[in-house]
Amino acid sequence: MPVQTIPPRIRWAVELMDIQPNDQVLEIGCGPGAGAELICAKLETGKLFAIDRSESGVDRTKRRNQAYVDAGRLVVRQIDLATLRVPVKRLTKVFAFNVNLFWVRPCDDEVALLHERVVPGGAVYLFYDASRPDLVPNIVKKTSDALVKSGFRVSVVEQKAPAVIGIIGRR
């Protein structure tokens, strides 16, 4: 099997999250599994629970990260956030990249679920490709508003190359 590359934008986002060996992480929209690969490589006693609405995303993540699944560091499920019942009661970090849920429609229930499950001091890291600068202000405003409404303290980070915007909600 050929070595799969990890896009620089995913690498930057995961590095910014500062994954610790015992973190309990939820990834929303695991897609091809690049984020899961980087996160699991940093975990020892921690776990990553990765979800995707797409069957192909779940399959690709499992195939790419089979060693982490076998080691018990990664659980992957086909489900959306709205119907998720997180097996990990207390999450230290939540990660999503280009998940439009948080800015295209009301997401009060989903963000409330995250606030309930993220430990005090934990954070939700929502990253978006910012190559379309015309969309960035709307993404930042709507995503930030949703997080603040549920009790998160929000900060915004930006990387120029590749263009990525991160909205971080701390509990």
Automatic annotation (TrEMBL):
A Gene Ontology biological process term: methylation
GO function term, MF aspect, one: methyltransferase activity
SUPFAM superfamilies linked to this entry: S-adenosyl-L-methionine-dependent methyltransferases
Domain Methyltransferase span(s) in chain numbering: 25-122
Transmembrane domains' residue ranges: none
Keyword Transcription regulation: no
Keywords: Methyltransferase, Transferase
Protein name per UniProt: Class I SAM-dependent methyltransferase
Taxonomic source organism: Nocardioides piscis
